[in-house]
């Protein structure tokens, strides 16, 4: 008959495995692939695509090429993500201004 400590060790091992699998899964409901084709003329970036995501309930970010860019103020204020200005397109009709990033932020907030 197995010792009680053997049952406890087996139970704890099983519990740890279940927790690790649960914690490592991605919450696909809060992210999606997005590209220039999705927004057409409203695409505000110089990169063509990425993964749009809502993190921590309100941080809208875009991952592309191994970099995660902050898109909205909440994500920027967290100071955990790269500044989007390096890939944010200039407005061709007005010197010194950028294309509106609002449509991309709206898409991201819809994932929250």
How would you portray this structure in words?
This protein starts with a helix and ends with a helix. It has one domain. The chain is an alpha+beta fold. The protein has helices at residues 4-24, 36-39, 73-78, 102-109, and strands spanning 31-35, 49-55, 59-64, 67-70, 82-83. It has a 5-stranded mixed sheet with strand order 1-2-3-4-5. It is 35% helix and 21% strand. Strand 4, helix 3 (73-78) and strand 5 (82-83) form a beta-alpha-beta unit.
Helix-strand pattern? HEHEEEHEH
Poorly predicted residue ranges: 4-26
Percent in strands: 15-25%
The helix tally amounts to 4
> What is the rounded Rg?
21 Å
Supply the number of structural domains: 1
Give the strand line-up of the largest sheet: 1-2-3-4-5
- Which oligomeric state applies? single chain
Would you tell me the structural class of the helices and strands? alpha+beta
Number of strands: 5
Main β-sheet description: 5 strands, mixed
Overall form: globular
Q: What helical percentage do the residues reach?
A: 25-40%
Distance between the termini: 52 Å
**On the 0-100 scale, what is the average pLDDT?**
83
What are the salient characteristics of this protein?
112 residues, alpha+beta, 5-stranded mixed β-sheet, 21% strand
Summary of the model, kept short:
With 112 residues, the chain is of the alpha+beta class. The protein has helices at residues 4-24, 36-39, 73-78, 102-109, and strands at 31-35, 49-55, 59-64, 67-70, 82-83.
